Amino acid sequence: MTASAFGLLCALVVGVAMTLYLWGVRRRQLESSAGVDSLNAMHWREFAGLVLEMLYRRGYTAIEQHPLGSGDHSDILLRHGSGLCALSCKHGSAYRLGSQAVGEFADSIRMNDANGGIMVTPGSFAAEAYERASSLQVELIDGKTLWPEIAPLLPEALRARLQADAVASARRSIGFSWLLAVAVGVMAGLLWPGNSVEPATAASVAATSTAAVAKTATSTTMARPVGALSPEEIAKRRADVARAIAALPGIEQAHWSTQSTLSLFVSDDRNVWAGICGIISRYDELRATRVQLNPPAGSTTPVRFKQCHSY
Question: Where is the Restriction endonuclease type IV Mrr domain (predicted)?
Fold first, then answer.
């Protein structure tokens, strides 16, 4: 085998392996991560409603006619077959629930004379929580487990956007992975035992090739306004903005309806614009975000679109 053939083989092996991983595994991870962020951006009632719909599909039914009527984050009683089941929805990405939370939920199950319970969070559970839940007939569902089952219940437009973002990110990563594969192939060919090039010369050429690839990657990165941020960081920053704005007085709900449009449901839009712009302006890549202001139900005020910055 010649040095060039060996280098080409190495480049193909590295490139194909990374492509299979990035497209087959990483793409789904990115979509799942962004999807969980979208669940975190919802209000508790909206999140709990999706969880209920998911459980209805499993065969559960609510004891009360309007299980979310109070909206006080209390446990919800469900019927499954001839038994009762309690549901606890812990909403928020900051949640990392431990054994104490499971124990408190088990007390609630006993008080309601239920046969078992389901605790759901888009966050995560500590290892000791799973250990305690297994002995208390409590099913734990974290964000990673929840997403595949709840994703089909989300609006089609939101799912399509999440999938498109994950595909675009995976394609960018695949492009860079092939640049790396080429660099590996060049170095492998130069280090091939049958190569007649002197070691010092080979090292010099390899270094030059690596520098050229790095320069190309750097140039490409500099061309992107937010090139210093990974797709996961961008998705998290967008979710942070939505959560922060949703917490402002007068804002009922905030979510990203498109890549560039933040949809807000307001109960009182007086004196909220400065707070909205104050949050958005902290993130350079979101400064030109278009903000959609949706009036309260029954209001005669039309939907309005505004921008904090036009660039």
Answer: 39-146
